[in-house]
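REQUEST FORM: STRUCTURE PREDICTION
Request ID: SP-0412
Submitted by: Lab K.M.
Chain count: 1
Length (residues): 421
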Amino acid sequence: MTGHGIPEAAPLNHLVGRVLSVLAVLAGLAALTATAQVVQPKAPEVQTATPLSVERASAGDSPDEPGPLATDLSPALTHAAISKAAQKVADWQLARAEPVFNQQWTYAALYDGLLAASKTTGDPRYHDAMVKMAARFDWKLVDARFPHADDMALGRSYVDLYLETRDPIRIADTKAIMDRLIVRPDDPEKLLWWWCDALFMAPPVLAKMSAATGDRRYLDYMDREWWQTSASLYDPAEHLYFRDSRYLAQKEKNGQKIFWSRGNGWVMGAFAKVLQVMSKDYPSREKYITQYKEMANRVAAIQGKDGLWRSGLLDPESYELPEVSGSAFFTYSLAWGINHGVLDRAKFQPVVERAWAGILSHIYADGRLGSIQPIDGQPGKFKPSASSVYGVGAFLLAASELDALAQNAAVLRPNKIPSQK
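STATUS: Completed
RESULT:
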């Protein structure tokens, strides 16, 4: 030591070196953490994949104090009652979401619902907002991680809007990406659609593109890939889809297999959208009908007493709240099946009536639709106030089919809204 307690030069240099080393390690960890949060690297202009944290933040929220539940809605299957509920939720969601519209799969489901809401309510605002959204993004899809199905989901709305005007610009980019997809050789090491949600994201786009262009190559490609996914993830005994291969051997607390509500909701919604545009004489159409009916019967058999389904379908006791996004997709798909003569009205109309009444019990006074599980890939827990745009999209799709059901039904039977638990 030198005078006044000052270390000699060599020890000082050693200490400084150690400090700099620690700082370098910390900086490296920070860089790795930042990198891990990015789903995909940026691409030019709007062609970007959103970091998961941003995607979650834009999709919805779960406030501690969402306010009181709505008391002005009726579960009666009448046009007036259904339209009122649809408009209340659509208005709330549009006001919150329009400033942050994006091209992600989360919003693609909302856009489907908003287009349907204009038909249900007769209010053009929702439709017009979709045209403005599409123009804002130059009618393009995200194309940063081809061939990921999620990035193709927005194509459903683009094709629907194209069919109104037949303006080629409205499907040009979507068609170009679908054209790349249908010539892509399969990877023997990995399924293209390796998670069941993917069946809602890309197959309806391919089916709609086939119907819009008259080119059956899109449908044939979809058909091949769909049944590869089914062979991997569909349980022929339970008549439900595993979310992905990670869950094939996992079990719920009660020993049952893990089947995620929204994952199976995505699949049921996909059946409705694909069968809607698939020609009656398509060779494998009956194969779709058979699996759809199997799932419809299974879903109806495990419906909760409140009309809804829990996040984990076969272990409802482990999940306190019903899960509204999966329930809404089930309701949409089952109502579609009744309307198109695929499902028996006498058996399934009471199921969708109970489900609709249950869903309405989770609408707040301001129009928030709650009890929607945030972005996930498995059963989970969440707050009663949790709302996300894809769940609202499913709700608005359900409303559109229930409105058709109400107007076609010979006898309408209103239900009382069950109390929220």
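NOTES: The chain has 15 helices and four strands.
Reviewed by: T.R.
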